[in-house]
């Protein structure tokens, strides 16, 4: 049976989840790296998925007015065709269709996501490789299209990019925001849609993982229900502040800041793996 998680580990990992969920640096990758480097074991995919419920609760509260408006407009548009040109009605559909790729691929490859995809060689490599993708998006993206110009095609492409985040090290926000920049969206427009798009997928993943999170596993760190709750609440509080910060940051700053960080972190992890300081699995 796996080792019991300590309260220090639960608190630290909750902080890491809250700090990294919305930044394009991969929260699942960071949880895996921090777990291995500082605690010598893996907190597991279920712990990651459940604590993400805290950060998604932060999104629900931060964007509560937008979400409520979208839901009302979506149902109104279903009943009254004359309202189907409204942005909020269309946004409801864009979130739905953008969620399909991650839902389908997450179901088909759920076993691989929980096992082989958590290899630190893969995570460190993806941190670097996808840093180059983000850099290319920042360099080539025209960044002129506002959120009002979002189309169904954008939703499908950004939803497909979100599915890449099933691989730890890629980053959900990094994938969707980069795709948005390639499509010509402004950073703020891409980030806002990225937050809304993540809600169904992350909430479904967290709820789906709840039974596994409370079931002691044969390896890795096993968190108690109280530890999961505290880590999730910490992730919520810090995640809420992170949303506001990122939305302000992307208005006036480029994504290159995150590119540099990802490359440095990936290189450090690769060095630790190559020298045998940490284990890849």
UniProtKB/TrEMBL annotation:
Keywords assigned? Antibiotic resistance, Cell membrane, Cell shape, Cell wall biogenesis/degradation, Hydrolase, Membrane, Peptidoglycan synthesis, Transmembrane, Transmembrane helix
The primary location reported for this protein is membrane
Q: Which GO terms describe its molecular function?
A: undecaprenyl-diphosphatase activity
Q: Which reaction does it catalyse?
A: di-trans,octa-cis-undecaprenyl diphosphate + H2O = di-trans,octa-cis-undecaprenyl phosphate + phosphate + H(+)
| Taxonomy, superkingdom | Bacteria
Task performed by this protein = Catalyzes the dephosphorylation of undecaprenyl diphosphate (UPP). Confers resistance to bacitracin.
Other remarks in the entry:
Bacitracin is thought to be involved in the inhibition of peptidoglycan synthesis by sequestering undecaprenyl diphosphate, thereby reducing the pool of lipid carrier available.
Q: What is this protein called?
A: Undecaprenyl-diphosphatase
Q: Which gene encodes it?
A: uppP
């Amino acid at each position: 049976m796996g080792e019991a998680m300590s309260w220090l580990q639960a608190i630290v990992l909750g902080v890491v989840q809250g700090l990294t969920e919305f930044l394009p640096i991969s929260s699942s990758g960071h949880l895996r790296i921090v777990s291995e480097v500082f605690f010598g074991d893996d907190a597991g995919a279920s712990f990651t998925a459940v604590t993400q419920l805290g950060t998604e609760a932060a999104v629900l509260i931060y964007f509560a007015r937008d979400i409520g408006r979208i839901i009302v407009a979506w149902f109104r548009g279903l009943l009254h065709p004359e309202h189907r040109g409204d942005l909020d009605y269309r946004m409801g559909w864009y979130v739905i269709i953008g969620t399909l790729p991650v839902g389908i691929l997450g179901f088909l490859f759920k076993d691989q996501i929980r096992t082989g995809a958590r290899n630190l060689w893969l995570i460190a490599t993806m941190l670097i490789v996808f840093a180059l993708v983000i850099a290319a998006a920042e360099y080539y993206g025209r960044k002129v299209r506002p959120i009002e110009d979002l189309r169904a095609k954008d939703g499908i492409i950004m939803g497909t990019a979100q599915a890449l985040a099933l691989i730890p090290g890629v980053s959900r926000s990094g994938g969707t925001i980069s795709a948005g920049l390639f499509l010509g969206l402004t950073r703020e427009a891409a980030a806002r849609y990225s937050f809304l798009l993540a809600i169904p997928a992350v909430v479904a993943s967290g709820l789906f993982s709840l039974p596994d999170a409370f079931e002691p596993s044969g390896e890795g760190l096993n968190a108690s229900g109280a530890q999961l709750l505290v880590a999730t609440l910490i992730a919520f509080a810090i995640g809420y502040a992170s949303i506001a910060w990122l939305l302000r940051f992307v208005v006036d700053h480029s994504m290159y800041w995150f590119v540099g960080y990802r490359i440095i972190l990936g290189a450090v992890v690769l060095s630790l793996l190559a020298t045998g300081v940490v284990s890849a699995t």
